[in-house]
């Protein structure tokens, strides 16, 4: 069994698939902590978890003139300054189950918790590329930075992905070769000993168990870059889809969801108030500036409070422009409408480019069920 050396996992996780292991935390736990504890951080593996000996680990940097660079874990820690970045990671398939409810899609049936927030620390990819010889000459032809993982399928094919070279080398891109998650060495499920953290960019490019970095004129040729993680029109089906016709997903669109109450929850009649909680985030470092909440299916709206990272009531000061990598948790307490038998609670977020979420799923439905970011809706019953 290629999965026999997979690590143990926290029993509270909701498992979508065991081999490979894919799981998400219960939504109400997500909004309990600004920084998601690693044990309940969502886990998305395509392949068995490789067990890597940190003493013999080697990271190869290729594609630049001068023969490339080989770095041990100690080199990475000692030769480059350590940076810390709090960044939210979201799988392109987060909330896929809502697309499945419209019409069947192919992929793991994620709920709303294929997203989590962690504090990552490591070397900057930019610094490592500069040390490997990246400069004005390479900038003339280099367009992408490719990553390869140590996890393999039965044919020996490894997981791979790439990002634009501008994101990789930009001082404000904050791309890390992370060796710590929440102040500890990376757990096996999250890429021990080293993973790429590409803030603001879809989970799939945040390659775990990193073995190789290649600067190149082309994108990664991996299946996950070329023939997966792309968006299509609702009319595109498996007979007509041409993966070459669409760009690989990089930055993600604006997103929000309600973590509390759960869909189908009961609220006792006579309660004075209802409290709604959730998360909001946008890709590309765009800051979420507002979350609107409706208790009547979207007819009327109230503005939610954006909480600070310590859970306090004051909003966090804004990060530098274009570098809002972490989600915002939000909350709204409102009087319970007195006549209602049922509430349809809805949320939608707005980022600082005034991007907003679409109101329904059908117009953004796509055959792979990615980029599912319609207004999130939960129904709660008022019971006697
Ligand atoms: N890296 C490797 N090597 N193998 C993988 O299967 N999955 C990707 C990405 N990096 C993956 C990977 C996908 S699709 C996502 S959403 C994130 O890792 C999930 O990261 P997490 O398990 O730390 O939450
Ligand atoms: Mo993903």
From TrEMBL:
<comment type="function">
    <text>Catalyzes the oxidation of sulfite to sulfate, the terminal reaction in the oxidative degradation of sulfur-containing amino acids.</text>
</comment>
<comment type="pathway">
    <text>Sulfur metabolism.</text>
</comment>
<dbReference type="GO" id="GO:0008482">
    <property type="term" value="F:sulfite oxidase activity"/>
</dbReference>
<keyword id="KW-0496">Mitochondrion</keyword>
<keyword id="KW-0408">Iron</keyword>
<protein>
    <recommendedName>
        <fullName>Sulfite oxidase</fullName>
        <ecNumber>1.8.3.1</ecNumber>
    </recommendedName>
</protein>
<keyword id="KW-0560">Oxidoreductase</keyword>
<dbReference type="GO" id="GO:0006790">
    <property type="term" value="P:sulfur compound metabolic process"/>
</dbReference>
<keyword id="KW-0500">Molybdenum</keyword>
<dbReference type="GO" id="GO:0020037">
    <property type="term" value="F:heme binding"/>
</dbReference>
<dbReference type="GO" id="GO:0043546">
    <property type="term" value="F:molybdopterin cofactor binding"/>
</dbReference>
<comment type="pathway">
    <text>Energy metabolism; sulfur metabolism.</text>
</comment>
<dbReference type="GO" id="GO:0007399">
    <property type="term" value="P:nervous system development"/>
</dbReference>
<dbReference type="GO" id="GO:0030151">
    <property type="term" value="F:molybdenum ion binding"/>
</dbReference>
<keyword id="KW-0479">Metal-binding</keyword>
<dbReference type="GO" id="GO:0005758">
    <property type="term" value="C:mitochondrial intermembrane space"/>
</dbReference>
<keyword id="KW-0349">Heme</keyword>
């Amino acid at each position: 069994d290629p999965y026999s050396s997979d690590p143990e996992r926290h029993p509270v996780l909701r498992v979508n698939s065991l081999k490979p292991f894919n799981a998400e935390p219960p939504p109400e736990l997500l909004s309990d902590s600004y920084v998601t504890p690693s044990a309940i951080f969502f886990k998305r593996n395509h392949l068995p978890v490789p067990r890597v000996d940190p003493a013999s680990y080697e990271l190869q940097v290729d594609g630049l003139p001068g023969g490339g660079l080989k770095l041990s874990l100690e080199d990475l820690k000692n030769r480059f300054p350590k940076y810390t970045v709090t960044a939210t990671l979201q799988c392109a398939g987060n909330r896929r189950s809502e697309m499945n409810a419209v019409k069947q899609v192919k992929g793991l049936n994620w709920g709303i918790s294929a997203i989590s927030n962690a504090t990552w620390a490591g070397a900057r990819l930019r610094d490592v590329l500069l040390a490997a010889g990246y400069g004005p000459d390479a900038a003339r032809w280099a367009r992408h930075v490719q990553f390869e993982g140590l996890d393999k399928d039965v044919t020996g094919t490894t997981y791979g992905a790439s990002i634009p070279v501008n994101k990789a080398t930009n001082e404000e891109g904050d791309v890390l070769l992370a060796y710590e998650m929440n102040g500890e060495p990376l757990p096996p499920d999250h890429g021990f000993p080293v993973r790429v953290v590409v803030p603001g960019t879809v989970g799939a490019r945040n390659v775990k168990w990193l073995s190789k970095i290649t600067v190149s004129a082309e994108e990664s040729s991996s299946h996950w870059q070329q023939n997966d993680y792309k968006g299509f029109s609702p009319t595109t089906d498996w007979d007509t889809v041409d993966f070459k016709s669409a760009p690989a997903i990089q930055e993600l669109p604006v997103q929000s969801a309600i973590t509390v109450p759960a869909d189908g929850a009961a609220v006792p009649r006579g309660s004075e108030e209802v409290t709604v909680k959730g998360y909001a985030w946008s890709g590309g470092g765009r800051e979420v500036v507002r979350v609107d909440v409706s208790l009547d299916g979207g007819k009327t709206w109230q503005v939610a409070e954006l909480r600070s990272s310590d859970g306090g009531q004051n909003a966090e000061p804004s990060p530098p422009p274009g570098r809002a990598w972490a989600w915002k948790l939000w909350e709204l307490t409102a009087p319970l409408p007195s006549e209602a038998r049922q509430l349809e609670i809805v949320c939608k977020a707005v980022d600082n480019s005034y991007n907003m979420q679409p109101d329904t799923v059908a117009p953004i439905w796509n055959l792979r069920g990615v980029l599912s970011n319609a207004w999130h809706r939960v129904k709660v019953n008022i019971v006697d």
